[in-house]
Amino acid sequence: MHNVKRPRGARGREGILSSARSLVIESGYEALTVEGIAAAAGVGKQTLYRWWPSKGALVADAFLDDPAIPPSFASTAPTGDGVAWVRAQADYFSSAVGTSVTRALTSATAEDESVAIRVHERFTAPILAGIIDWLAITVPDAAAGATERQRAAADMLLGALVFRMLTRSEPLSGDGAEEVLHLVLAGLRTAAAR
């Protein structure tokens, strides 16, 4: 049996991803350049372009392949009454790291359709699916259109958490996030009772 050695390229790739994560968190996506990432990682710019077609693709890999980012989404669904989950999300989105990561991923998806698809598949879709499943259990509704209502409610909940951070207005507080959760649940309960 041969010993399998990890290729030097894999170590270099992780160094690049780590440098990209650090620079995004430190300075934001707008200030990030391919040249800056290459310099921080100690590689040539062509090395980055060999592995990634764009800055957005590199940033998406940096965060989607890092199990620690974003830490508040380790579980993609609320549990129990959902209050602790929604407050944790509000805390995450109002933190410096959460703001930097989410803005970077949003910018990357706006620049490149293939990045948008990947971020949706690996990040957004599992979160929404978890919220929808939780809503279906929390507010049972067997009526026609219930799934669409639950999807719309999940969009409202996640959208409320993200919107203020993306628009650079006052972050949604834990109390505000909890109020949004209660409004969404009340709306679903009203619809289910019809």
Question: How would you describe this structure to a colleague?
Answer:
InterPro entries: Homeodomain-like_sf, HTH-type_TetR-like_transc_reg, HTH_TetR, Tet_transcr_reg_TetR-rel_C_sf. With about 190 residues, the chain is mainly alpha-helical. It folds into two domains: about 10-55, Homeodomain-like (Arc Repressor Mutant, subunit A); about 70-194, Tetracycline Repressor, domain 2 (Orthogonal Bundle), CATH 1.10.357.10. The chain contains nine helices and no strands. Helix 1 packs across helix 2 and helix 5 crosses helix 6 (about 95-110). Mean pLDDT is about 85; it is low at about 1-5.
Question: Which tags fit this structure?
Answer:
194 residues, Tetracycline Repressor, domain 2, 0% strand
